[in-house]
Amino acid sequence: MTEPRMRMRQKGQQFDTRDLEAYLIAFGDDRNPLPETVRVLDEIITDFIIETCHEAALCASYSRRAKIKVDDFKFILRKDPVKLGRVTELLNKEKEIKSQRKVFAVDDEQIGKDETHKEETKKGKRKEERKEERPAKKAKSTRE
After folding, report:
1. Structural domain of residue 123, as residue ranges?
2. What pTM, to 2 d.p., does this model score?
3. ∠62-66-72 over CA atoms, to 5°?
4. Residue ranges of the chain with pLDDT lower than 70?
5. pLDDT digits (tens, 9 = 90+) for 93-113
6. pLDDT at position 1, please?
């Protein structure tokens, strides 16, 4: 698919060479892939991302929206169950991580306030105990 508006491509690679080499090695290429292979993989990935984004933008425009949503990407990938499954899996994992962070999210200021409040209540209890002890001593001395 061609882009709606042709733009000048940036010269050079878009992705880190080490990352691309790791992908190639993971899929069975040699430990030292050829630079041409890395360059071609970079072009393929870049073209795929650009085309997918343009298709998602087109889908959003059909829905009369100016902004692209995640559902637009899901709609574009609906015919490729492997990619759609991976996207769904990653989105579910992201939701799970966010919910886990909320469970452990504790406001640092609140922790500090809780600690000072505990210390103040301990000090306050000690002062009250001292006040209660003092009148009792005075009462004994006045009675004698």
Report:
1. 106-144
2. 0.61
3. 55
4. 1-10, 106-144
5. 999 999 999 887 766 556 666
6. 47
Rounded-to-5 percentages of helix, strand, coil across the chain: 75, 0, 25
Is residue 94 domain-shared with residue 116, that is, in the same domain?
no
- Compute the C-alpha angle 107/103/122, nearest 5°: 45
Per-residue DSSP letters for 21-78? HHHHHHTT--SS--HHHHHHHHHHHHHHHHHHHHHHHHHHHHTT-SS--HHHHHHHGG
Residue type, 137: K
49: Cβ contacts below 8 Å, ≥ 6 apart: none
Sort residue 82 into left (φ over 0), alpha (ψ -120 to 50) or beta. Answer: alpha
Tokens of 62: 């059909």
Residues 52 and 84 sit within 8 Å (Cβ to Cβ): no
Distance between CA atoms of 55 and 61, rounded to whole angstroms? 10
- Structurally, the chain folds into a number of domains equal to 2
Q: Which residue has the tokens 């990938």?
A: 77
Q: Could you give the CA distance from residue 47 to residue 3 in angstroms, rounded to a whole number?
A: 10
Residues 96 and 25 in one domain: yes
